[in-house]
Amino acid sequence: MKTATHKSKGVQTMKTRRLFAYIGTCVLVGLLAGWAPTGVLAQPTASDAPYQQDGAKTTVKAFEDMHRVRFCEIFFIQAKGGQMELNVYNPTGLNDMAATRDSCPDKLLNKVDLEGLKTQYKLDAIYLNKPRAWMFDEIKVPVGAERNFYGMDFYWMAASHVPKGMNFEPGFLTYKRAPVERKTELTYKAGKPVFLLDDPDGKVWVMKAFRDSYGQTSENLKDLGGRYKNLPAGWKFRVATLTQDLILRPTAGTATITQDEFENTFDYMGDGSSNYVP
């Protein structure tokens, strides 16, 4: 495949950008999961484009030593049946990740031509969910087909859909809750610190991924409580050291997520979604 010489380009229209703000907030972080936020995506059919078959057959893969591993995502977006269908590609586990702890190295990502992919795969739109890093230690996740985009390898890792023309402003999930269907199992190892939010209802949320931006590093996350400017009344940030392995595995196949003002993602722990709450 010909390598592009320019960096990835964003989507052009404001309406589409607002839709992507919603998509990026919903899909981004719970990803590595094979879930859809509300509703069930139709099974691939013979008339679908070849890439739409990438999730027809998945294999559960287990990845260890994932804490602080960097990742990103590309969303293939297609209008289908009055909705916007998303097929999501994630490089976790690929691109020499075991050696570099970075499945989304900038030297590869900067060669990915989004507009080229949009044309090649006849997409209605395409979106890059920019790099962030995982906070758990181990994950078991269903993955589909593997594809190479401009020299960078990706797994198919999720499918989702949203109503056509949804108009959400950026940050709609900040300190709000969103349910997601999910099949992953996440493990945080005993003896390590975790970053938690307590909400006014007494629910506890654990950080799953932090955004590679806002001057954040894995080392200064412990100081988030002092950096928040928009933390709502009744919300509190704290750091806890795990006394045993913390395992998140939604028993009913549905998890609940939220984000803070720095686009860090947190999972709700409780109601059977985790083995205990720190």
Q: What would you say this structure looks like, in words?
A:
It is a single chain. The chain has helices spanning 14-30, 97-100, 106-109, 114-120, 224-227; strands at residues 59-63, 70-80, 83-90, 125-134, 138-143, 146-149, 152-163, 178-181, 185-188, 193-198, 204-211, 236-241, 246-248, 254-259, 265-269. It is mainly beta. Strands 2, 3, 4, 6, 7, 8, 10, 11, 12, 14 and 15 form an eleven-stranded antiparallel β-sheet that branches. It has a four-stranded antiparallel β-sheet with strand order 1-5-9-13, with no helix packed on it. It is globular and about 50 Å long.
Question: Which characteristics define this entry?
Answer:
278 residues; mainly beta; 11-stranded antiparallel β-sheet; 4-stranded antiparallel β-sheet; 5 helices; 13% helix
**Structural class category:** mainly beta
Number of strands: 15
Low-confidence stretches: 1-14, 18-47
Compute the separation of the termini in Å: 48 Å
Helix content: 10-25%
> Mind telling me the C-alpha Rg?
18 Å
Number of helices: 5
> Hey, roughly how much beta strand do the residues contain?
35-45%
Number of domains: 2
Report the principal-axis shape: globular
Mind sketching the topology for me?
Blueprint lengths: L13 H17 L28 E5 L6 E11 L2 E8 L6 H4 L5 H4 L4 H7 L4 E10 L3 E6 L2 E4 L2 E12 L14 E4 L3 E4 L4 E6 L5 E8 L12 H4 L8 E6 L4 E3 L5 E6 L5 E5 L9
Antiparallel strand pairs: 1-5, 2-3, 2-4, 3-7, 4-11, 5-9, 6-7, 8-14, 9-13, 10-11, 10-12, 11-15, 14-15
What does this entry show, briefly?
By secondary structure, this protein is mainly β.
